[in-house]
Every structure is written in C-alpha cells, then in structure tokens.
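tool_call: predict_structure(chain=1)
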Amino acid sequence: AAQQRLRFTFSDVRGPNQDHVSLSELLLYDANNVQIEPLEFSNPDGNSNQREQVQKLFDGSKSGKWLDSNWLSQMPPRSVVELVLNSTATRYNFLTTPKGPLKRDPTEWKVEVLDKCGIWTQVDSQADVVPPSQQGLYIGFSISLEEPTSCTPLAPAPLQPQLASPAPPKMPLPPDIPLPPSPPPQPPRNPAVVASTYQIRFEEVRGPVING
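tool_result:
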C-alpha cells in the first residue's frame, strides 16, 4: 500500500498563561475505521524531556503524555508533528493529558498531507475548539483527501530581455592636415667658387706687417 505523510501543526492552546502544548494520544483511522499505527513520527524543532517525547502520542497508554516546551519559542507559536503511515488516514482523534495544566490542551491546528506532487496540502483545520474539561477525547475530525490528478511543474519565470547596449557614437576623423611644401632643391655648390671666395677674402685682409 502507498504510504502517506501527514503533518499536524498546533498553533493555539487553551491557556491562560500559555507555555507549552501537550497531548496524551493521537489516534488515526482509515476508511474502514481501523486504527493506524504510524511507521515514523517526529517533532521537528520541538523540545521534550526523555519521558514526554513524541512517541508517547502513539504508545497506546493513557497515563503518559507528549509535551513540547519549544512551542512558545516559535513566532507565531507553533508545534509540528510529522508522521509516515502505511495506509491512508481519513479521520483522527486526540486524547488530552491525564495530569498537568489544562492550559496546554490544543485548541487550534491544521493538518496537511504531502501529495504525490511533493507539495504539503492542507486537508483539515480547526480553530476555537473547546477541549474536554478533564482527560478525554476530541472526536469527529476528518481528513479530506483530494489528490491532484497530475503534477504540472511550475513554469520557469520568463527571462527578462536583455537590452543591447547602444554602440558608442563614431567620432569624426580629424581632417587631414596638409604637410608644408618641401623646399625647392638647392643647387650643389661649386668647390672652386667656394675656394675662390675664401681666397678673395684672404687677399682683402692681407697687408703689410705692421710692427708695433
């Protein structure tokens, strides 16, 4: 048989001066009114002493109790009990504790089932429940199972189009700067003319030696 995962979340107690949440038994039944014993159970984020741990909810004894002292450490207050069953539960009852303050009796909770799509789906919720005045049963709670016919994966969020960055404007090329015209070629000097010039200059300064 297919297994079923259930989650009970307790969110309010009788009070006043709330401190913890507590129960003696959690009783589960299938469609044929046969009691179901859970295969696994846990109290995530709960805190219980050795004698008041979550297995006390399923030990068949009215003299013990489960107590979660971490109930008020959650904001808003809550305590969770998770179960794995070997068959499908359709209803459930609670048995209040034989001893201890009545203020710890649950008065508000919800029940969820992990469906075949892997999603926790609420199948029952209760609020403003009046617990028995002494140890007794809360009775008459049903689980409404509506399994999805198919699992449709969530479509991924559409990607935002990426806007192309505008190309930087092209800078106009600087105008060509005309080079200055090359000077006209100089005619080659005639060595004879140069020597003659120097010779003439020397002759102009040559003169008689004047002794001072």
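agent: The helical segments are 191-205. Proceeding to next step.
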